[in-house]
Amino acid sequence: MLALWRKSHGLDTLRADCSVEAVDGIDIDAWLEPKMRRWYLNLLDTAPAHLVPVGEFGRSSSVTVTASPVGTIVPPAAVRRVLSVKLQGWQRPVVPVPEEEAAGRLGRLASPFCRPGRNEPLAVVRADGTLLVAPVDVPVVESLRCVADPGEDVYQLDETLLT
To answer: 30 — phi, psi (to 5°)?
Structure first.
């Protein structure tokens, strides 16, 4: 990845028939690596899901019931973005919505007539990255599809994102 970045920024040597050695100057690789890392993390947060690595984290996640019928899921540390969640007993997976968009639905959790059900469950992404889910009939995460950071020196992405 670093070689691609050096080349795309015009910082790679194009001639192979000579060599140049510099004693002083800036370390280009040290300058490029954090910039490249920020670019990649931004891609994980914003790029279409089919172009970045998506993983299943249902087995490594658990639900903590906070107040019936509401629970909390803490995704693993590597998770950058949650694409969908499905608890056992839900009829379908749902896409989590940001907390500010779900204010009206969160206000209706107390009502037995308006709260989410198995057919129309609710998943809300909080500012701290945790998920608020309802209803929690069976506290088992069946599926948690997420975009995750594969690690500091690993870059998994579709080639079309390099343009």
So the answer is: -65, -30
Beta bridge partners of 147: 54, 81
Residue 18 structure tokens: 């000579």
> How do the pLDDT tens digits run along the chain, 163 residues long?
888 888 887 777 666 677 767 666 788 888 899 999 999 999 999 999 999 999 999 999 999 998 878 999 999 999 999 999 999 999 999 999 999 998 888 888 888 888 899 999 999 999 999 999 999 999 999 999 999 999 988 999 888 888 8
Q: Kind of pairing, strands 122-125 and 97-98?
A: parallel
Q: What is the pTM of this model?
A: 0.80
Dist CA 14 CA 8 (whole Å): 12
φ/ψ of 132, rounded to 5, equals -100, 125
Q: In whole angstroms, what is the distance from residue 109 CA to residue 104 CA?
A: 9
